[in-house]
Amino acid sequence: MSDTGDPDLVDYLGRENAYADSFMADTFDLRQRLVGEMKSRMPDKVSTPPEHWGPWSYYQYIPEGREYPVLCRRLRHPDGYAKALLDYMRGCHREEILLDWNEIAEQFGYVHIGTCRISLDHKFLAYTLDISGNESFTLQVKDLHSGHVIPNSKMEGVVSLAWAGDSSCLLYTVCDATQRPYRVFSMELGSGHHLRKVYVIDTEHMKDGLWLLRERVAGVQYFLEHHYGFFYILTNAPLESTSSAAEGYYLARCIAEKSLTAEWQVIVLPGQDISFQDMDIFHGHLVLSIQQKGLPLFCSIDIPMSVNSEQPMKLENLNPWFFPVPSCLCSIVAGSNHDFMSSIYRVVISSPVMPDIIVDYDMGKREFTILHQEEVVGLTEKGESDSYGVAFPFNFTITKLKKDESLEDGQQQSWTDLSEAFSCERIEVVSHDGFMVPLTIVRSQKAKHTNQSPGLLHGYGAYGEVLDKSWCSDHISLLSRGWVLAYADVSAGGLLVGAAINIYHSLFSAVILKVPFLDICNTMLNPCLPLTILDYDEFGDPQNQADFEIINHYSPYDNITQGCYPSVLVTTSFHDSRVGVWEAAKWVARLRDKTCPTCSQSVILKTNMSGGHFGEGGRYLHCEDFLSSKDTDQDSPG
């Protein structure tokens, strides 16, 4: 069943899809109604505020009625907006379309842009393209003057890329047969010549020699940024007092010319309940991405730093500026922030009750500016019914966030949220083993005072990631019908749900498993599959007897028992390179065999035959994807 080239497998999945469509046929009208609601909340045209970089302003927009964005730019005018508008009316400084996702989708039927980088001289655009959904990306470089892709720039299996300082050379990593990056290449534009480089490279002086930053050590990771003769390093390398990797990342520094581990200076260790996630560096500032008890935060630190102490400092001693955010914040994502010389850092902040807000934080002045907030069509201040006749069970009012401790004095600005209509609260619940699990609960204010409501519990948390709790207008269709949404920040996703229903058959009315990892033992005994070797650190190595026994104890496929199970919907993708489509198919077949005839009829397998692990990418197609994984009657208990 693991041979996706076998026509019998394709036929089997097709028959499963036909059964799923037949089983859900009586929900067709409801699903169409919900899709209509979701699409009606989307504005006809979506655009982002321009990001200024050098002489250009870069921005994206989704044209009216289209699925995908268009990347554009236009020249900035030094004399301000009025002069720029006049020049535009005269035909000067016209918009340049750099990349149109829609054209690619029309040509190939599917599009996923992985990485997109403009050269520092603004003459070239390098991007990676997936047209099948299997996350195998092809590098292409576009000459922005001619508008054509450079023919000899196309390279298969590219994972990441970066431009050299003089823009004459592009560095990129390629993956092996298991999609693990293992080589770094150098492309000299126009020459077709590729140089293999596998060490730290000074991008300003490509041929002046190489040096090894650090020998590889099992379990140790480090990420570095260069800043005027120093490397700033985010790492979990062992500290002097220990021989094993640190529990989390800390910030260190070393002189670039003498980058031996023994000479690293530990600058700051994370405090209690704080973890460092990432960093970004600019001419005068270093930005740290932080999580505090699972909540995201950003802070900036002025650099260069005057750090003379031999002992690590506390973060507060570096005079950090924590970016002011609303108290209801659940998600904060960095923008592209290309301009190294800029003191402006752009982020998108969001929560289940606050549509996405684009904010510029001025790290020099320690001020912020709200640039744009996502429009939600159909929600009126008077709580009127939308065009599909769904009356919201509350008086809907758009409100301004009240003054709270998360905003500093003198920085009060308007954050539009929907907190008078919806409630979003974060609590901690005790797990069976005593661990505290963060749980975010979202519901309408009316449902908050109802004793019993249908509920949808989301669970995910593998690879150090937490559940996405950003704004999603599609959820209004559930919340307005009295549903309660809950997000548990736990380990794994489909594996978690599969294991839970093996142990607690009767606890759930229905379960949904999206591209789930279910046959852990068999999958991880095959090192030729993508992610298997990387997953040894996450789940253990089943070739080790002790690890095998632990994995086998919770593996969903290996622990299905006789008895009645809840109704199950499993969604999978044929071109998924992360989790094989056969895992879901095998699990569904075994579950049907083990359960009673009544239960086995309501075990449904739905396979996307064209998409990958993340489904379809278009904004309207996303509505279809959203519903395909939430086919549930509005009156069903949860």
From TrEMBL:
InterPro entries: AB_hydrolase_fold (IPR029058), Pept_S9A_N (IPR023302), Peptidase_S9_cat (IPR001375), Serine_Peptidase_S9A (IPR051543). Gene3D superfamilies: alpha/beta hydrolase, Prolyl oligopeptidase, N-terminal domain. This is Prolyl endopeptidase-like. Residues 491-619 form the Peptidase S9 prolyl oligopeptidase catalytic domain. GO terms for biological process: proteolysis. GO terms for molecular function: serine-type endopeptidase activity. Pfam families: Peptidase_S9, Peptidase_S9_N. GO terms for cellular component: chloroplast. Serine peptidase whose precise substrate specificity remains unclear. Does not cleave peptides after a arginine or lysine residue. Regulates trans-Golgi network morphology and sorting by regulating the membrane binding of the AP-1 complex. May play a role in the regulation of synaptic vesicle exocytosis. Residues 3-192, 196-372 form the Peptidase S9A N-terminal domain.
